[in-house]
Amino acid sequence: MPQSDMTGSIDGPPRLPEAKDFPATGPFSLAAPGPRFGARAIDLSLVLAPALVVISLSISDVAGQMQLDTPDWLLAAIVGLGMAYEFVCVALFGRTVGKALLGLRVARYTDGLRPNIAQAALRAIVPWSTLALPLGPFAFGAFLIVYGTSLAGDLHRGVPDQAAGTIVISTR
């Protein structure tokens, strides 16, 4: 006898959704890579805007030459702000500003509900922690690669989604 649905079954434990379980387009469809990266660009712009202000204030004119003297704490502040932004938005609203603007939301992979606090924390920590690795100028590349993993697989669940047990779906 076949299983009744994703949330429960007659024959055993519930099964996890597969790509075929989602509509091709419209609400509840899997988020396409374009809108996901657009949302990430919006979110990064919001997180990096304060850093750009600090950097612009760090430019000085010394003996007719422009010098940039960024504070040592700036990278830690960016990482902290990025994690806090992602965590708070996903924990409270199930979406970031970028995702809201582009009609996306983060859902629990198992049941489609809003992620719990632990899931929101993991989803925020995994990508932003790459900037804390001793990779020098390659840290931002590692950061982008972690987000780029959402291009792989039928469900477009990147490393942050897999770690947190979440999935990104369309709301419109």
Automatic annotation (TrEMBL):
It is a multi-pass membrane protein. It is found in: Cell membrane. The keyword Disulfide bond does not apply. Residues 31-165 form the RDD domain. The chain crosses the membrane at residues 37-60, 72-94, 125-147. The keyword Cell membrane applies. It holds the Pfam family RDD. Keywords: Cell membrane, Membrane, Transmembrane, Transmembrane helix. GO terms for cellular component: plasma membrane. This is Unannotated protein.
